[in-house]
Amino acid sequence: MALNHLPAHPPRHTPPRWPGDSLLPCGHLLSHAWDDQTTAAACPSCRQARQGLAETNRAVHALTATPPSPPAGLMPRVLAAVRAHPHPGRLLPLPTIRPTHITEANAAKALRHAVDTTCEALAASCRLTPLSGGEVAITMTLLATYDRPLPEQADTVRRTILTTAHRDLGLSVRAVDLCITDLVPGTDSVT
Ligand SMILES: [Zn+2]
Which residues lie below 8 Å from residue 112, measured CB to CB, with a gap of 6+? Predict the structure, then answer.
């Protein structure tokens, strides 16, 4: 069968309609080939251009449909930068025979470390407020994971904070307030 190299429909010499709109070998504009499906189907050149555009469109949609994931280890580095503030904070009394204090910043560091190493959630920030009677109130913000129920993660963090504060630091804790400020993929999700 002889191929007909002539355009299957008469060329339209219209000005470009898109930025980057170009003239196809058949004499039609790329924008025309894309917009006018019926007549473009009869022209090999327009048909090929449409297919190329459709493939490009599919590839672009596939790329934009995939949410970007942060590089491995980014979250701990961000947290480390956020935590590296130079303020030691207030002094908290420890229950020792001779007067001993720990800075709020160091007590918070110990609690965050305990949560980060034993819990699914990550500690974002931690504050300790000295109260009357030598007690403290602890406020921690968390990055929880999608993988586990949030109440379960919060309970684990609360237990870890109470255990560490009481056993390791000797602090008497009156209240632990937790706030989940973000959700991140869990370690099970990281590939
Ligand atoms: Zn054409």
Answer: 83, 123, 126, 140
Q: Edge-to-edge, what's the strand order for the sheet holding 135-145?
A: 122-130, 135-145, 172-184
Kindly list the domain boundaries of the chain, sorted by start residue: 30-64, 74-184
Burial of 81 (0-12, 13-18, 19+ CB in 10 A): exposed
pTM of the model: 0.55
Q: Which residues surround ligand 1, an ion (CB under 5 A)?
A: 26, 28, 43, 45-46
pLDDT in tens, 121-167: 999 999 999 998 889 999 999 999 988 899 999 999 999 999 999 99
Residue 63 Cα to ligand 1 middle (Å): 30
7 Cα: distance to centroid of ligand 1 (angstroms): 6
Q: 74-184 adopts what CATH topology?
A: GMP Synthetase; Chain A, domain 3 (3.30.300)
A 10 A CB-CB count for 71 gives: 8
Q: Report the 10 Å Cβ neighbour count for 181.
A: 10
